[in-house]
Amino acid sequence: MATFTVDLLRGDIYLFSGDFTGSGGTPTSGSTYPQVNVYGDLPSAGSVATGQIYVVRNGSGDYVLNRKPSGFYISTGSVWRFLGETPDYFRSDNFQVYDASDNTKGLEFVVSGVSTNVFRQLTVQDSDGTIAYLADLDTKVNLSAFQDFTGTTAPATYLTIADFTSYTADTETRFTGYTATTLSLINAKQDQLVAGDNISIVGNVISVTGITSNSALQLYDNSGGTNVNTITPTTIDWTTQAFSGTALNYTGGSRIYIQSNGIYGISYVLNVKANSRSDKNIGTLIRKNGDTDITPMSTTSFSSNYQNDNSTNTMPESLVSLEGGDYIELIAFRIGYAGTVNTVAGGSWIKAEKKL
User: Fold this and answer.
1) Phi, psi of 43 (to 5 degrees)
2) Quick check: 34 pLDDT over 70?
3) How far apart are CA 72 and CA 38, in angstroms?
4) Counting beta carbons within 10 angstroms of the beta carbon of residue 315, is it exposed (0 to 12), middle (13 to 18) or buried (19 or more)?
5) What single-letter DSSP state applies at residue 17?
6) How confident is the model at residue 279 (pLDDT cuts 50, 70, 90)?
7) Cα 320 to chain center, whole Å?
């Protein structure tokens, strides 16, 4: 095997034709490698013998475009091939990737933060895409894709769409500590009533708390005898209260007091009897706060000219908007001839119910 040595004083490299042997002798024949200053000074590879080795004393050229490091180069007969360690342009402070159309711009890799004796791997997935930095998430990522996402709507892993095929609500972390007693409603039916806010189920008893239900109030006139065939409207007094609630209040007389704002449904029936032999015509409506009519003249009743002839005013439920502090009344008045027309005992009622 050929052996070479370096003249430490002059820097020349010598190639010896013989091998060193165990006799301690020194070969006496040999030659130096041809030397040139930089790679560009090498003769063409085809002009020298294949296998010829030259020494390039100094590196030249720009990193990474056309860098030629110093060292040994061997001719393959057509090109010069570098012999030695990895070229220094692969160092992180030299290695660059430049733009194909503008070599003044490109990128470099900074690996100074990697632990000693560790080579980190960057895995490229089998698709095209654009690398984004964490700082770009607010400006370059379509945030609308995440508008419905919260930290508890999915497991804390990155999943594919296929992973959600069998995903059900009972795997969601918000339900981990949720317990409730269910009640089967009808034999083997799958419908179940589940306890939750304001609802508790113990055995077959269902309790509701904290929910304000709508309230209804219904009043009757069991006395009668009020003459309503008057030009000035007459309010109808009530004697008996059948239902009441927190949204409505009755303290006697003709007024129903509203306790809370809302939409109320109002209906009534007024039975009257004429006491003279002449035609009578009675109109009725609901009035608010003594001066505001809140329903049209919903109905009139007509009595022929027969003594003790009865007639009835009826209004189906009408929805009106009322506020706390208002009061409402049923009023009746004369439309036709004068005379006496009295309310019938036990024949009239009014109902008001808070709907919303």
Assistant:
1) -70, 165
2) yes
3) 11
4) buried
5) S
6) confident
7) 38
* The token pair that represents 69 in the structure block: 């490091």
Residue 184's pLDDT band (cuts 50, 70, 90): very low
Query: Which residues have CB under 8 Å from 294's CB, separation 6+?
Result: 286, 287, 288, 320, 328
Contacts of 244 (CB under 8 A, 6+ apart): 215, 217, 250
pLDDT in tens, 140-164: 666 666 666 665 555 555 566 666 5
| Token code pair at residue 24 | 């301690």
Of 211, 217, 170, the closest CA to residue 350 belongs to 217
**Which DSSP letter does residue 139 get?**
H
The residue whose two tokens read 């009755």 is 250
Reply yes or no on whether the pLDDT at 223 is more than 80: yes
Distances (CA, A) of 348 to 123, 223, 239: 87, 10, 10
CA 250-251-254 angle, to 5 degrees, is: 75
Tell me how far apart the alpha carbons of residues 198 and 196 are, in angstroms, rounded to a whole number. 6
Spatial CB neighbours of 261, under 8 Å, sequence gap ≥ 6: 322, 323, 324
* Residue of 323, 328, 325 lying closest to 351 (CA atoms): 328
Burial class (CB within 10 angstroms; exposed 0-12, middle 13-18, buried 19+) of 144: exposed
C-beta separation of 13 from 6 below 8 A: yes
3-state secondary structure of 174: helix
Q: Look at residues 355, 222, 350 and name the one whose alpha carbon lies nearest to residue 286.
A: 350
DSSP code, position 87: P
Q: Are 309 and 347 in contact (CB under 8 A)?
A: no
| pLDDT, averaged across the chain | 78
∠ CA 154-155-157 to the nearest 5 degrees? 115
**Residue in this structure with the two tokens 């020194």, named with its chain if needed:** 26
